[in-house]
């Protein structure tokens, strides 16, 4: 399914905008990613954490107009907007929900369709290209997001449909899972630290940027190597979709040894991203929901974890 040339609307996410002369400076002290790395041609993944390093949200961020726009799970946006406004009181920045102002499409194996719109998108992950009011972002090999003003939704749906099949959000999410890109959703809010979702391996954490909320915990986990849980790609049979936050169990421990982060259907079951305890992975006997639940099969991720390389970002 994830190999199909298709597009779909990314209505499961909203857009939080931070605008004004202090927008980047304000966010630099709030987020795991380094806003100094952003420019007109570069986007980034990132997260916002609690003081204890637990992720309140994860997002894709890019520069736009007089500030930044962050795409995150729609169910998280209202709380994040309200909380961030408390810290922005003395900053020359304005925070708003711009979800209704944008239409966003996921485009898979569709570079030709983007080129037809005037968007010659580079192959490098996080590359950004712009044409008029349109923005394209490379999110992983063969996958891109197309951002546009909401009033262009109908026209763009027609134009993309001339070259691509209109697919489902599940097809897009399956591609995200196979790319190994975890995401905080409403049920998993404040459950994971960034390294549990391998966020540092996909460019969403900077260890050179200085202080931000939760930075001390995140840095300690990276430098001291104390993290015992991380993200894995798994497969399981069955007809019931594993919900985010569902516990995972192993005979190695009497309690849960991980949780589902994101799941999508395949032709013969489901694939998912799951946060798992290392010793349970070594044992290999992992079950969904209980020790008697469906067994999980471990698959491979398209990247490797490399602490020395990650801390150079």
UniProtKB/TrEMBL annotation:
UniProt cross-references to SUPFAM superfamilies, sorted A to Z: Aminomethyltransferase beta-barrel domain, Folate-binding domain
GO biological process terms, semicolon-separated: iron-sulfur cluster assembly
Transmembrane regions: none
Protein name: Folate-binding protein YgfZ
């Amino acid at each position: 399914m994830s190999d199909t040339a298709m597009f779909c609307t990314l209505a499961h996410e909203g857009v939080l905008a931070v605008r004004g002369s202090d927008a980047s400076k304000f966010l630099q002290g709030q987020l795991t990613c380094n806003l100094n790395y952003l420019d007109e041609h570069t986007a980034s993944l990132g997260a916002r954490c609690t003081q204890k390093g637990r992720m309140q949200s994860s997002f894709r961020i890019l520069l736009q107009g007089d500030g930044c726009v962050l795409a995150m799970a729609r169910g998280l946006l209202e709380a994040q907007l309200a909380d961030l406004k408390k810290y922005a009181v003395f900053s020359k920045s304005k925070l708003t929900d711009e979800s209704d102002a944008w239409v966003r499409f996921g485009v898979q194996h569709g570079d030709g369709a983007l080129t037809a719109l005037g968007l010659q998108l580079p192959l490098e992950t996080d590359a950004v290209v712009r044409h008029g009011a349109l923005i394209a972002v490379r999110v992983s090999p063969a996958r891109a997001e197309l951002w546009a003003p909401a009033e262009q939704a109908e026209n763009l749906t027609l134009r993309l449909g001339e070259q691509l099949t209109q697919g489902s959000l599940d097809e897009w999410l399956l591609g995200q899972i196979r790319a190994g890109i975890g995401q905080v959703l409403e049920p998993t809010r404040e459950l994971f630290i960034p390294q549990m979702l391998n966020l540092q391996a996909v460019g969403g954490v900077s260890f050179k940027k200085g202080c931000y909320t939760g930075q001390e915990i995140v840095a300690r986990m990276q430098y001291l190597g104390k993290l015992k849980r991380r993200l894995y790609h798994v497969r399981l049979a069955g007809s019931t979709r594993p919900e985010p936050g569902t516990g995972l169990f192993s005979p190695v421990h009497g309690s849960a040894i991980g949780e589902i982060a994101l799941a999508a259907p395949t032709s013969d079951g489901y694939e998912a991203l799951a946060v798992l305890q290392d010793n349970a992975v070594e044992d290999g006997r992992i079950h969904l929901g209980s020790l008697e639940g469906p067994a999980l099969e471990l698959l491979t991720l398209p990247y490797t974890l490399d602490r020395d390389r990650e801390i150079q970002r």
